[in-house]
Amino acid sequence: MGDHFQTIADIDATAEEAEALGARVVAWLVAEGIVRAERTYEMLGRPVYSPGPRWDDVTEWPVRGGCDGLAVITSRTVFWGSLGSDGSPVCPHCSTPGTTAPWPEAVDAWHRTGASELRCPACDRRVPLAEWTWEEDRFAFAHLGFEIWNAARLRPEFVAEFGRVLGHRIRTLAGKL
């Protein structure tokens, strides 16, 4: 069966503000009863907040037991989603797929340094790696992410509110291990 996950990545958070923003979101989720304040176990070595009494209010259908919980990642991470097609990276300026760009090298550089740019083969603009999108949201390059494990799909209005609480652009991904 495997484990399913959904990730909400804050693509604007800096390394310096990730911890504080993560704590702000957790405080909001605890106050709303969506997660509990305690982290009761780990998933892939990350402490996980257990679902709260209102967890099912933020998902599209109830799941007995809610979910396995929420992990908050506050370090430079290449978040990935494995559901959907492979898709192609898309330039945010001209919407042209960038299939010829040197992606592996750019991803490695971003992971090492937190900065990487690629030149779009169509419009010739140099675009920060984190700004590129995928036809199916496959990657997010961020210093802050929230992984929800083994839960029903999150309601779009909850995801939008999540972005408002952060005050930044977000990217959502889904996958299965």
Folded structure, characterized:
The protein is α+β, with helices and mostly antiparallel strands. The protein has 2 domains: 19-78 and 139-176, no CATH class; 89-134, no CATH class. The protein is built from 3 helices and 12 strands. The chain has helices spanning 18-31, 103-113, 156-166, and strands at 4-10, 35-43, 46-51, 69-73, 77-80, 89-90, 117-119, 126-128, 133-134, 139-142, 144-149, 170-176. The strands form 4 sheets. A 6-stranded antiparallel β-sheet has the order 2-3-4-11-1-12, with helices on one face. A hairpin with a 6-residue loop joins strand 7 (117-119) and strand 8 (126-128). The N and C termini lie close together (9 Å). The model has no long low-confidence stretch (mean pLDDT 86).
